[in-house]
Write a structure and sequence with these properties.
Elements: H1 9-25, E1 32-35, H2 37-53, E2 61-67, H3 71-78, E3 86-93, E4 106-109, E5 119-127, H4 131-141, E6 147-155, E7 168-172, E8 178-179, E9 195-197
Parallel strand pairs: 2-3, 2-5, 5-6, 6-7
Antiparallel strand pairs: 1-9, 3-4, 8-9
Helix pairs in contact: 2-3
The structure holds inosinic acid (IMP) and magnesium ion.
Length: 200
């Protein structure tokens, strides 16, 4: 029997990705593929529709992507939101090159776009300790937007001090260190088209 007949699109992508990753990583081992490219594409499309449906036709919507981790997600997401919007970026740094949060969030680039009276969507790659969001939400609220929502591709649900819940979450993530689709480890692996975990 043709194996493709019994495989979902997600399974096929996982197999294809597993074959592809030695080239992407230069042979460095990944532990496992957690979300395939197909699973991500399907979910991002759903999120785009939900976001488009959440605002009125006159609302002035500004997506703020948190660099660098959200760049792939944001690029795909905006193309799934069928309504007028604008895009800008924030650059914050809390992780250095390790896998544990330092807890010290620095704002390295602050968007020049005005925010007062606008509907802001803060786009994050992953919510882990929540420290980054706690810090950034304060800075955004000071600029008196009409609303602020958080849209995160992944949520680890480990944070104990989360002050703001995300309105849109792509996937609940396992408590493993994840790379790919924008997520890095020491700046590597951001270009993987799927999300994988690293060996512990
Ligand atoms: P938080 O401040 O601890 O919530 O961390 C958020 C930021 O840490 C994210 O935007 C990521 O850049 C980074 N981060 C947290 N967990 C992971 C992970 O599993 N892989 C890669 N980066 C992560
Ligand atoms: Mg990072």
């Amino acid at each position: 029997m043709n194996p493709e007949a019994t495989m979902s699109r997600g399974d096929m992508d996982k197999e294809a990705a597993a074959r592809a990753f030695p080239e992407y990583t230069g042979g460095r081992d990944l532990r496992r593929i957690v979300f395939s490219a197909g699973e991500i594409a399907d979910r991002v499309d759903e999120m785009g529709r939900e976001i488009a449906g959440a605002y009125g036709p006159e609302d002035d919507v500004l997506l703020l992507g948190l660099l660098k981790g959200s760049f792939v997600f944001l690029g795909d997401l905006v193309r799934c939101i069928r309504r007028p919007l604008q895009v800008d970026f924030l650059v914050a740094s809390s992780y250095g090159s390790g896998t544990e949060s330092s807890g010290d969030v620095k704002l390295l680039y602050d968007p020049s776009a005005p925010m007062d009276g606008r509907h802001i969507i803060l786009v994050e790659d992953i919510i882990d300790s929540g420290t980054t969001l706690n810090r950034l939400m304060g800075a955004i609220r000071e600029r008196e937007p009409a609303s602020v929502e958080i849209c995160a591709l992944l949520h680890k649900h480990v944070a104990t001090n989360l002050e703001h819940e995300a309105r849109w979450v792509g996937f609940d993530a396992p408590n493993e260190f994840l790379v790919g689709y924008g997520l890095d480890h020491a700046e590597n692996f951001r270009h993987l088209p799927f999300i994988a975990s690293l060996p512990t």
